[in-house]
Write a structure and sequence with these properties.
Number of strands of chain B: 0
Number of domains of chain B: 3
Structural class of chain A: mainly alpha
Helix content of chain A: over 70%
Radius of gyration of chain B: 45 Å
Shape of chain B: elongated
CATH class of the largest domain in chain A: Mainly Alpha
Strand content of chain B: under 5%
Shape of chain A: globular
Distance between the termini of chain B: 96 Å
Largest sheet of chain A: none
Oligomer: heterodimer
CATH architecture of the largest domain in chain A: Orthogonal Bundle
Number of helices of chain A: 11
Helix content of chain B: 55-70%
Number of strands of chain A: 0
Order of helices and strands of chain B: HHHHHHHH
Distance between the termini of chain A: 54 Å
Chain lengths: 210, 183
């Protein structure tokens, strides 16, 4: 069924156009009632958003793609778990965030083990050795790596809220639901995460000559 | 406003969540402290830089992989339960069956032993010969005494020491003498 839909790209495009008028909540409702094309549309709407979100957690494209796939498969297999009391985006981000956090914890444990097995000389690791260049593309790449490295230094609860707020641009209410913490805690964490990031990135201002 | 309050309020200021009075106070602090103003500008620039980061997208074959995985999930065979009826006793494996038998036998034998230990204490009360009398109300020995018709009769007068009354009805063989008996 799914492959047939995929192979018939013309049909898929037509159906997708007709789905443009539907909200996410309408689509999941249709999917819950058996319309698999609504699932295809939800996948098309969310795959890149989720990928960008998860990548900021893991900093690993391949792993991020696996997590996004797991999230979208869970959407397929557990579609009836969604209740219309919450926004669909909140629900799907919560699933992705939980998968990402789990993977990150596993990765951290592996890293701790590996570092403990290394000699002290091997433990000296630095940020990616990309130097600023006159070329704009290289400069941007360098800058992004610096920012990503700074985000990676944040504790997990800070990282979650800062990605959701400053990268995904979700509202405080949505972040509160996804992170499952009160609104005041979300605001406080975002503020503290921004200040911590500022400490990590204070020399960027000099490099960029803001 | 102090440094800590200023830092706590940076996001509220940047996201326009302050009332007029708070905003005025915040800006006054910045005017008096240039490093605070610099901190605010840095935070603002960082937010801008983070928002400007390039979008990371899924690979072109993402959809194919996803739908293949969904097909696999849909057609995945359920795990079959393998039964081994020849080697079970009432549904237990030989090891568990023997352990269960030992447990049951132990439980029954311990229970019987405890029960048989309790029987003499209920019927051999006269053999106590008055040496030890538990006078606490509701104790098993007291209940047994109360069942004895003779003792019930003596207990009618509560002013008389019940211990002495009991001793009169017990066969003490002259081995135990009560203080009041000397009178």
């Amino acid at each position: 069924m799914m492959n047939q839909l995929l192979q018939n790209s013309y049909f898929q495009q037509l159906k997708m156009d007709s789905h443009l008028k539907y909200t996410d909540e309408d689509l999941i409702e249709r999917f819950q009632n058996g319309d698999e094309q609504a699932y295809v549309e939800l996948v098309n709407r969310y795959r890149d958003r989720l990928m960008n979100f998860v990548y900021r957690f893991t900093n690993d494209s391949e792993q991020s793609e696996d997590i996004v796939q797991d999230t979208l498969i869970k959407l397929y297999t557990h579609k009836h778990y969604y209740k219309k009391i919450a926004k669909f985006s909140t629900w799907i981000y919560t699933i992705a965030a939980n998968y990402a956090k789990t993977e990150l914890r596993k990765k951290k444990n592996r890293k701790t083990t590996n570092l403990s097995q290394m000699s002290s000389e091997e433990k000296d690791y630095d940020l990616p050795a990309v130097q600023p260049d006159t070329d704009k593309a290289i400069e941007n790449e360098y800058l992004e790596k610096r920012i990503q490295a700074a985000i990676n230094t944040l504790p997990l609860h800070f990282k979650t809220v800062i990605i959701l707020r400053d990268i995904q641009e979700l509202s405080y209410d949505e972040i509160s639901n996804i992170a499952e913490v009160p609104l005041g805690t979300v605001k406080s964490r975002i503020n503290r995460a921004r200040i911590q990031l500022q400490k990590e990135l204070k020399d960027i201002k000099k490099e960029k000559n803001y | 406003m102090d440094r800590y309050k200023f830092e706590d309020s940076i996001s509220s200021y940047l996201e326009n969540e302050m009332n007029l009075k708070e905003r005025q106070e915040f800006e006054n602090y910045m005017d008096e402290n240039p490093e605070a103003k610099s901190l605010l500008e840095n935070v603002r620039n960082n937010i801008h830089l983070i928002k400007e980061m390039s979008q990371v997208n899924t690979s072109p074959d993402f959809i194919n992989k996803l739908f293949n995985r969904i097909e696999y999930e849909k057609n995945r065979p359920l795990k079959k339960i393998i039964e081994k009826p020849s080697n079970t006793f009432f549904g237990f494996s030989p090891l568990y069956a023997s352990l269960m038998s030992v447990l049951v036998v132990s439980f029954v034998s311990i229970g019987l032993t405890m029960w048989s230990d309790n029987i003499p204490s209920t019927i051999s009360l006269p053999e106590l010969k008055g040496s030890i009398v538990d006078s606490s109300p509701g104790s098993p020995s007291n209940i047994n005494l109360m069942n004895n018709q003779d003792l019930v009769a003596t207990n009618v007068d509560s002013s008389i020491d019940s211990t002495i009354n009991k001793s009169k009805n017990l066969n003490l063989d002259g081995k135990v003498k009560f203080v009041k008996n000397k009178r």
